[in-house]
Specification:
This protein has two helices and eight strands, in the order H-E-E-H-E-E-E-E-E-E. It has 222 residues and is α+β, with helices and mostly antiparallel strands. Strands 1, 2, 3, 4, 5, 6, 7 and 8 form an eight-stranded antiparallel sheet that branches. A hairpin with a 2-residue loop joins strand 7 and strand 8 (195-204).
Length: 222
């Protein structure tokens, strides 16, 4: 009678263990890659939505401000040296105070939109400054600063043009001594470092002093 030898338990060889570990690492790497890609996509979409919200809120507030300016305002722009990639400061005297977050700011006599260098030298920041007229204006300045607030940060460029209805031309500067009445339209072009898109908007400026225009310019608004 033939007796079979007892069957011994056979373990895994070193090669099989290494292959199994490699397969597990491959699966973990794939799962991690998918999760990381999804997280990056979510972060990118969140930043894009935030940027779109910032631009939308800014342009809506800017449009509401310009379209509700009272008669008799004094507008001057681009009369001083500007930062590279930007237009000169915009000063509006006699109108309401936009972007006001405090009662004292609402009492400002003038508002100035200025482009300044950000923390990074290549970055620009749009600031709104609320100004109070000095009791005794000097030759250097007629206003004192009440408050200032950054509106748009991380800008690559920020340019403004103004449309003269009488001459039917766009200008990069506006001198109230030569043109007492405010411009009829304002065209705004800006872009961010973190966003490849370029934004351009054209706004109507409420103005009862402007003469009638036979033909309005062709406006392109994104």
């Amino acid at each position: 009678m033939f007796i079979h030898p007892p069957v011994r338990d056979r373990g895994f060889t070193l090669l099989e263990v290494i292959a199994a570990m490699a397969l597990i690492m491959l699966l973990i790497g794939g799962v991690y890659g998918i999760a990381d890609g999804a997280l990056r996509l979510s972060t990118s979409m969140s930043k894009a939505r935030l940027m779109e919200l910032r631009v939308s809120n800014f342009t809506n507030a800017w449009r509401d401000y310009l379209e509700n300016l009272p008669p008799g305002i004094r507008l001057s722009a681009g009369l001083e040296k500007a930062a590279r990639g930007a237009s000169g400061n915009l000063l509006i005297e006699g109108g309401p105070a936009p972007f006001a977050w405090d009662r004292s700011v609402r009492l400002a006599d003038a508002v100035e939109f200025a482009i300044v260098r950000g923390e990074e030298k290549k970055s620009l920041t749009l600031m709104v400054r609320h100004l109070k007229r000095l009791e005794k204006p000097t030759a250097l300045d007629a206003y004192e600063l009440l408050a200032e607030l950054p509106i748009l940060e991380g800008l690559k460029e920020f340019r403004v043009q103004y449309y003269d209805a009488g001459e039917k031309k766009w200008f990069s500067a506006w001198n109230p001594e030569k043109r007492p009445a405010p411009p009829l339209f304002m065209r705004l072009h800006f872009a961010f470092h973190a966003d490849p898109r370029e934004h351009e908007f054209t706004f109507w400026i409420a103005n009862d002093l402007q003469p009638a225009v036979a033909a309005a310019p062709v406006l392109q608004t994104q």
